[in-house]
């Protein structure tokens, strides 16, 4: 059963669906578009329908098990992207432990604001706590706003350093896009060369990835533009992913036999907390903002 939280204004509404987790359902009824967001499961968006058709992939078995990380939807990566050697980094001569992709995707977020005027939007917040300070010695506040209108999903991000020293971090999103026939995918990515995350070899991109490989995990580290486009001929779907200039790389990940591919904007590469490569340093009391926008057009 769905209980309205806010009165409907024009075509936009937000409702609450009580499943295993409380799920906020944003809708644009004219466009037949909805977005489902689950604050307590890492602030994740789990479903995005455009013209009534699902854009995202979700492994529901993993999602319902709180001991497992979510494989699907749009997980949030903070304060690192990727993994660290032995899950370890050093700050001021002290070693700290931080698992792959950080903790934001595993912690409960709180709902701060909802809007149904001109769009459907919900703002979630994550703040530092004893749990985060045990692995990352900085006080912070994150505010993510999910907004849908028509065939577009926008994710506004605000990062605030509440510490008394500069806060090093990287951030990213890890969207899983549904694709049942990956042989029909064509990519326009603003980068000619990629680096294989496993072999560290480099290759030149031709617009397609081989769906018969067991795994593809590559990073486009030298981007020449702020948008990538994927055409899925099997679904007559064109998906565009655009992002702020803070996102300096795109990671592509795909597994054989799974109906998804991931195209992930990252601000920094793996192990940036140790190497400092493209790491962001936010001054005390400062805030920075970023935006990722996705549009899904059925041809």
From TrEMBL:
Protein origin, superkingdom: Bacteria
Stored InterPro entries: Aldose_1/G6P_1-epimerase, Gal_mutarotase_sf_dom, GH-type_carb-bd
Pfam families: Aldose_epim
Name of the featured protein: Aldose epimerase
